[in-house]
Amino acid sequence: MGRKWNNIKEKKASKDANTSRIYAKFGREIYVAAKQGEPDPEANQALKMVLERAKTYNVPKNIIERAIEKAKGGSDESYDEHRYEGFGPNGSMVIVDTLTNNVNRTASDVRAAFGKNGGNMGVNGSVAYMFDATAVIGLEGKTADDVLEILMEADVEVRDILEEDDAVIVYADPEQFHAVQEALKDAGIAEFSVAELTMLAQNDVTLPEDAQAQFEKMIDVLDDLEDVQQVYHNVDLGE
C-alpha cells in the first residue's frame, strides 16, 4: 500500500504537539457531525466515526463534549464541506477536504497555498480518480494472521492486512469501517492506533529532493489553513 500509517500519524502528532490546531479541527468536525444528525454516536454513524478518529489523536474529552453540547444547544453556526483538487511540483497530486463558513475565503486560501508553492488548483475530478476512498484501521499486539482469522470468523471482507513496524494495518472499503472495528472489539481489542477514512493514491510517486522540499512546504501550508480538515496526496515522503 506504500504508506507507513503509524509513522504518518506520529509525524502529524509531532507537528501539532505544541499547538491546539488539531483539536480545533476535530472540534469543528465533531460539531458538524453532531448537528447534522443525532448528538448520540450510537445513533449517528458519522459522529461515531469522527469520535473513533479523535481517540487515536488523544483529543481531550472536554473538546469533544464542548462540540457536542454546542450542537445540542442549537447553535446557528453553519459549515459546508468542499473538496479541492490540484497539482504540486512535478505533477504530484493533492486532494484537500475543507469545512468552511466562507467558501470564497477558503477557495482563495487553498488556491494561494498551491500557487505560492509550485502547484496549481485543478477542476473537480482532475485528481480524485487516481485515489481510492479507503478505511484504514491499525492496532498493536496482534499479528496479521490473528487479525485475518478474527475478520474471517466475523465474515468481514477487507482489501488487505499488513504488518507495518509494530502494528497491523487493515485496509478496507469505507463501508466496512465499523464492521472491522466491531469485529476486532468483539475479539477483545479495545484500542486502535489508527482509525481513518482516507483517500489512498493508487500509485505513489517519488520527487527529486528540491521538488520534495517544495512539496512538503505546500502540504504544511495547506494543513495549517483553518478551514482545511484533511490533505491527501500521492507523494512518497519516505515516512
Automatic annotation (TrEMBL):
Residue ranges constituting the TACO1/YebC-like N-terminal domain according to the UniProt record: 3-74
Pfam family, one: Transcrip_reg
Positions of the TACO1/YebC-like second and third domain: 79-235
Subcellular location: Cytoplasm
Main localization, broad class: cytoplasm
Gene Ontology cellular-component annotations: cytosol
Gene3D superfamilies in alphabetical order: 1.10.10.200, 3.30.70.980
GO MF: DNA binding
Alphabetical GO biological process terms: regulation of DNA-templated transcription
Keywords: Cytoplasm, DNA-binding, Transcription, Transcription regulation
Family: Belongs to the TACO1 family. YeeN subfamily.
Full protein name: Probable transcriptional regulatory protein EV207_13215
